[in-house]
Design goal:
Helices cover about 65% and strands about 0% of the residues. By secondary structure, the protein is mostly helical. It is flat.
Length: about 180
């Protein structure tokens, strides 16, 4: 699906440094690397904890979006990723991270319905994998759920229903 300004409001934001594509790809890389490093951390590997937290925060700083949106979501989104250290039982808090992504990507409110997906997936995974030893499986599945939910939110935002609501109600999703 070709990307247009109607589908990606963040394309219209004037950037102070870098290009849109470079910052977007760097942010995605930092967010995933930070999440993986945090999942590899333990009481014996605090370096992974610090590196993961730093990479995650750096990812939220770099993502192309208005500064107030990035500042608003960095803390709760980091908490959502760190909470996964508690196992699948706390995986539903990844909805904070997905919600942060939807805020910085300026998705319309109707697309926030996808926040239920990581909560439902975490609930199901907690029943299947109650022990912490399956953290890699739980983290991988929840990572896929997050990516799939973000893409679903993008499709909802690009749907005729959402576009019609944006146009008829004068909703401005691309206000910096």
């Amino acid at each position: 699906m070709p990307s247009t300004a109607a589908h990606e409001p963040t394309l219209e934001i004037p950037l102070r440094f870098g290009t849109y594509r470079a910052r977007y790809l760097l942010a995605i890389g930092l967010l995933f690397a930070g999440g993986i490093a945090l999942q590899l951390s333990s009481a014996y590997t605090l370096g992974f904890t610090l590196a993961g937290a730093a990479a995650t925060v750096a990812g939220w700083i770099v993502v192309p979006a208005p500064g107030w949106r990035r500042a608003l979501v960095a803390g709760p989104a980091l908490f959502g990723v760190i909470a996964l250290l508690g196992g699948a039982q706390s995986g539903g808090l990844l909805a904070l991270t997905l919600g942060g992504w939807l805020i910085v990507r300026m998705r319309p409110l109707v697309s926030f319905v996808v926040l239920g997906a990581p909560v439902a997936a975490a609930y199901g995974l907690a029943g299947l994998f109650p022990q912490y030893g399956y953290g890699a499986v739980v983290g991988g599945v929840l990572g896929l759920v997050l990516v799939g939910s973000a893409w679903l939110a993008r499709m909802i935002a690009a749907s005729p229903f959402a576009q019609r609501r944006i146009l008829t109600h004068g909703i401005r999703t691309n206000v910096p």
